[in-house]
Amino acid sequence: MSSFNLRKLSTVLERRARRHWVRVAKWFHRDGVLPNLLIIGAMKSGTTTLFRMLCEHPGFVPPRTKEIQFFNNPHSFRLGSDWYRAFFPSRQRMQKISDRLGYQAVTGEATPSMSIPIYPRNAFALVPEARLIVTLRNPVDRAYSHWQHMRRHFRPEPLDFAAAIEQDLEWARQGLVLTESNHAEMARKLVIRSYVQRGQYAEQLERWFSYFPREQFLILNFDDWVSNPEQAANRIVRFAGLPEHSFPERRANVGGYSDPMPEGCRERLVEHFRPHNRRLFELLGEDWGWPS
């Protein structure tokens, strides 16, 4: 079967699954709560590790799947809040757990797609009081990890890393950037990959800050917490209003990639990201030591 037919088949199956879940949602957990927490990214910056550790806290009640892809996906978002609520525990279950614990339990999900422009707008429309967790990785390393991930994807990246980042940069030079208004026509080209543009964190955070107040964000430096995920997990639970917890020792999930970055690519990316890193540090009010 050709790659085009495989893509077409996967799209058809995905849409059928979503329609089925809409029917299920009409009777299954119609009274599901909305999330207190959203781990919004960045992709390949340890979001899976943080979510798994959060799930070990007795006061965190996980959804049916970690990554729901609701606010960042217009096809899912059109299915409505009942579809989304069906992934989360019922009010009755949340209350029972809270009564047993003696404090208010919380729930949340992790869809690490903070770079998608429609994400903050849609999230604010439904969960304007949600706490938002962001973990950011050195964008050079994040880009290479992302590319390695896509090489193992069921629709693998055909370009080598040098060619892939040059394609990203060329699209940017042509003005091909994803916006709220062009998502429908540009998402297929720009969402899945975007190795470079996903690392331009300041512009993404500025978009989120235009919807949500700054105090609703917890922003973590991946380079700082990767050696001590337990400390980062407890920062998150305190941010969520939960008591601290003794988490089992765990290493951050950074991917099993052994091939070094191709010669010249690091220097190319370091120079590209310098002004973006400077803009990020000015926005955060602290310097994380990345080249700027």
Would you kindly provide a written description of the structure presented here, covering whatever features stand out?
The mean pLDDT is 89. The chain is globular. 47% of the residues lie in helices and 7% in strands. It has one domain (3-248, 264-284): P-loop containing nucleotide triphosphate hydrolases (Rossmann fold, 3-Layer(aba) Sandwich). The chain is an alpha/beta fold and 292 residues long.
What order do the helices and strands come in, and which of them pair?
Layout: H1 3-25, E1 37-41, H2 47-54, H3 74-77, H4 81-85, H5 91-101, E2 108-110, H6 118-126, E3 131-136, H7 139-151, H8 161-173, H9 183-190, H10 201-209, E4 217-221, H11 222-225, H12 229-239, H13 265-284
Parallel strand pairs: 1-2, 1-3, 3-4
Helix pairs in contact: 2-12, 10-13
Content-based structural category: alpha/beta
Q: What top-tier CATH class fits best?
A: Alpha Beta
Number of folding domains?
A: 1
Cross-sheet strand order for the largest sheet: 2-1-3-4
Query: Segments where pLDDT lies below 50 for 5+ residues?
Result: none
Gross geometry: globular
Q: Report the portion of residues in β strands.
A: 5-15%
Give a quick account of the main beta sheet: strands, pairing sense, barrel closure.
Answer: 4 strands, parallel
Strand tally: 4
- The helix content, as a percent range, equals 40-55%
CATH topology grouping: Rossmann fold
Q: Can you count the helices?
A: 13
Determine the mean pLDDT. Answer: 89
Rounded to the nearest angstrom, the radius of gyration is: 19 Å
What is the assigned CATH homologous superfamily? P-loop containing nucleotide triphosphate hydrolases
Run of helices and strands: HEHHHHEHEHHHHEHHH
